[in-house]
Fold this sequence. Notes:
By secondary structure, the protein is an alpha+beta fold. Helices cover 35% and strands 10% of the residues. The protein contains 8 helices and 6 strands, in the order ααααααααββββββ. The chain has a 6-stranded antiparallel beta sheet.
Amino acid sequence: MKLIRSIKKGDAGPDVLALKRALKAAKMKKALVLTRRFGGALDKQVRRFQKLNGLPVDGVYGDRTHKILLPFFDAYGRRLLRQAPKLTPQEEKFNRLLSFMEKMSRDTPGYLYGGGHGEPLSGLQTTQALDCSSSCSLALDHEGMFNDDWAWVSGTFAYQYGQPGGGKFFTVYANGEHVWIRLHKGPYWRFDTSPHGDGGRGPRLRKLPRFTGRFAARHWPGM
Length: 223
């Protein structure tokens, strides 16, 4: 059972309060601070909690994390957790993709034309200066949604990535000059090296939209 829930009332939702009570009882309250990502899901502090307890560090509050904290939940908290909806494999994959994009946004030193090309994706780091196509290649490759060991240029994305058309979770928009990723779930509108009024240059998650005209829409099968 995956325990990422949609907290429509924000950080004061009943399941959030139940989780805080459990953490306090476990004397780990400082290890887990709640954020609004995915409408109230847990962000970097859940990874810290997982790391401290030898769990897979993936930013998802799931089975093994739940098992450690369960003894500290009161009856009300355990009832809420039993009611928590399961995530589909596609939702889990998208959440991991978004987590990696968040890391790239935090780590990036900025934009560099041609950055990330000429070396395999396995050797690229999120702390490198990348361009639009190498950053999209790296993010998609991280979750197994890319069919090459080397970054593509934007024009290759336009005619070769996945399948034509928009996706359910994200859509890759590309032409001969630029490529970016439209996000259909979560709090962000796009992953893009071009600001269009939102932040500086470089691979970052952005909340402001941009026009999709002149771009070919592509998506990964099932996503």
